[in-house]
């Protein structure tokens, strides 16, 4: 169990991946290229001929129909790569496997873990440093089961317990995209900085056996009956490729998710523990700290643009929207929203938010203000207003905000200390940055103003102590402070080389094994 605790802690790094969601394939036109019937069949499937992709597509997603066959139609091979590109962005692969200023999917992102530093792998089709020698069966096993081609276990920073639900067809498209739609990058995998004996991987095999579902069990769960096809689609996206639970579900002693689907009970998506100073809120129906007051349209707007009338994305969720959910179809976003809205509150006794004008009247009247009121008026009211309503969607409301009322104040403290940037999306291109106040306010002042915000206008949340602020301030480093996420992953430029037909690889041949 000691090894499980230590190596299981590596799963915490998966929380740095986007929170609420991403996900996967939008309804795609059927092509004449059948999906593999099983991973075994995939091992011997030849790769389709290479296809040129558009040189610049701001959304980084599906290529335009004009890039097509000579008769003006999109070929099956092009459609398959387009589907794979959609899945890759929806599953947020780029967020963990890309670095600002570097080529997409070339790896190098650092996960700071209790046991050391883990660096994400190069997943471009480079044969020396990436996955270019992987067969489709090896690729599928790594994604679904967390096992490398050499048999070693991947760290569960890779959310394979969720990816186990992905369909054969989606994984086939994803493989073809990575092998044919992504430019190979000859960038060596950076060695992990994890001391021996914690660097030994054999305990991870036990972790997988205990906590990760088998692909068969995961697929049976994904195929359970739902009231409507839309609800089934939403559940697949949220529970599977979107891996929302990796952030928004609590962890057990071995850092395993305490629930992987809604079938596992009310812990699923009931809010996760803080990672990098950000606390993922509940995505269930709690009226005050969850999504109980949000409509389907609110959720859809948030996933598409990173903002709505009730709040804005920040931290890791901003990255998830930036790389993933903004590119999903309206139908997929709506399906996800309807599924999330179907989840009952984890705490059925929680009272809803009711506005209280007392704080507003005090701030507007002036006179003798409390320290918290004075700090808010001096530092926050210009953007968030005296009534806490903000100027949505640019400056989010604080009154009634679920993040503000979360039992943990880490996210709010983090934002006050370091600031936050709401990056632009295709649907909402304007970016807004809140400056940090860490250099201006003492720990006691931050605690005072955060406590005021959490208890004003009808908000109900525990007070914050200056020791809480001091502890978080010490843990925040440049690596954990929010910065501009990488540019959205555009399709690779036209490949200069043609990828030959590849026979199934002999396992005895040398294969690059990304470190993760």
From TrEMBL:
Subcellular location: Cell membrane
TM region positions: none
GO CC term, one of those recorded: plasma membrane
Gene3D superfamilies linked to this entry: Cytochrome c-like domain
Major site of localization recorded for this protein: membrane
Signal sequence interval, chain numbering: 1-21
Keywords of this entry: Cell membrane, Electron transport, Heme, Iron, Membrane, Metal-binding, Repeat, Respiratory chain, Signal, Transport
Ranges of compositional bias, category Polar residues: 506-516
Residues that, per the record, bind heme c 3: 380, 383-384
PROSITE patterns per record: CYTC
One Pfam family cited in the UniProt record for this chain: Cytochrome_CBB3
Compositionally biased residues, Low complexity: 32-46
GO molecular function: electron transfer activity; heme binding; iron ion binding; oxidoreductase activity, acting on CH-OH group of donors
Domain Cytochrome c: residue ranges: 79-182, 229-344, 367-457
Taxonomic superkingdom: Bacteria
Cofactor annotation remark: Binds 3 heme c groups covalently per subunit.
Cofactor(s) recorded in Swiss-Prot or TrEMBL: heme c
Residues bound to heme c 2: 244, 247-248
Sequence positions that bind heme c 1: 93, 96-97
Region (Disordered): 23-74, 477-516
Name of the protein in its database record: Cytochrome c
Natural source organism: Acetobacter persici
């Amino acid at each position: 169990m000691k090894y499980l605790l230590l190596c299981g802690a590596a799963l915490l790094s998966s929380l740095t991946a986007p929170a609420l969601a991403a996900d996967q394939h939008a309804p795609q036109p059927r092509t004449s290229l059948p999906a593999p019937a099983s991973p075994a069949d995939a091992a011997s499937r030849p790769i389709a001929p290479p296809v040129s992709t558009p040189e610049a597509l701001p959304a980084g997603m599906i290529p335009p129909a004009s890039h097509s066959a000579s008769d003006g139609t999109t070929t099956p091979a092009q459609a398959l790569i387009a589907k794979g590109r959609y899945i890759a962005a929806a599953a947020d692969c780029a967020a963990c496997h890309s670095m600002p200023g570097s080529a997409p999917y070339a790896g190098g992102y650092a996960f700071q873990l209790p046991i050391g530093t883990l660096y994400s792998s190069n997943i471009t089709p480079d044969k020396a440093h990436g996955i270019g020698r992987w067969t489709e069966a090896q690729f599928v096993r790594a994604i679904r089961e967390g096992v490398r081609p050499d048999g070693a276990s991947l760290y569960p920073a890779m959310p394979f317990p969720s990816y186990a639900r992905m369909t054969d067809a989606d994984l086939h498209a994803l493989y073809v995209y990575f092998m044919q739609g992504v430019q190979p990058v000859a960038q060596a995998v950076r060695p992990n900085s994890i001391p021996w004996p914690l660097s030994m991987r054999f305990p991870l095999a036990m972790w997988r056996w205990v906590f990760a579902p088998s692909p068969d069990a995961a697929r049976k769960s994904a195929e359970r009956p739902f009231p409507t096809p839309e609800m089934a689609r939403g559940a697949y996206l949220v529970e599977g490729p979107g891996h929302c639970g990796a952030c928004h579900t609590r962890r057990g002693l071995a850092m395993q998710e305490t629930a992987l689907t809604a079938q596992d009970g009310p812990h699923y998506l009931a809010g996760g523990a803080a990672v990098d100073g950000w606390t993922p809120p509940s995505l269930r129906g709690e009226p005050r700290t969850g999504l109980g007051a949000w409509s389907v349209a609110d959720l859809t707007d948030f996933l598409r643009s990173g903002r709505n009338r009730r709040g804005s994305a920040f931290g890791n969720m901003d990255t998830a929207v930036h790389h993933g959910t903004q590119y999903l179809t309206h139908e997929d976003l709506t399906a996800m929203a309807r599924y999330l809205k179907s989840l009952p509150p984890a705490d059925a006794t929680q009272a809803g938010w009711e506005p209280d004008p007392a704080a507003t009247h005090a701030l507007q009247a002036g006179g003798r203000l409390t320290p918290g009121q004075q700090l808010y008026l001096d530092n926050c009211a210009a953007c968030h207003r005296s009534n806490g309503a903000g100027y949505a969607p640019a400056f989010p409301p604080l009154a009634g905000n679920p993040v503000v009322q979360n039992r943990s104040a880490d996210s709010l403290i983090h934002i006050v200390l370091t600031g936050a940037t709401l990056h632009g999306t295709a649907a909402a291109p304007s970016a807004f940055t809140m400056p940090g106040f860490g250099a201006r306010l003492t720990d006691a002042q931050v605690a005072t103003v955060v406590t005021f915000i959490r208890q004003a206008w009808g908000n109900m949340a525990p007070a914050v102590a200056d020791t809480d602020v001091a502890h978080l301030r010490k843990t925040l480093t440049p690596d954990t402070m929010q910065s501009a996420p990488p540019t959205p992953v555009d399709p690779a430029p036209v490949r200069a080389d043609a990828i030959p037909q590849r026979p199934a690889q002999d396992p005895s041949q040398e294969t690059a094994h990304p470190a993760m």
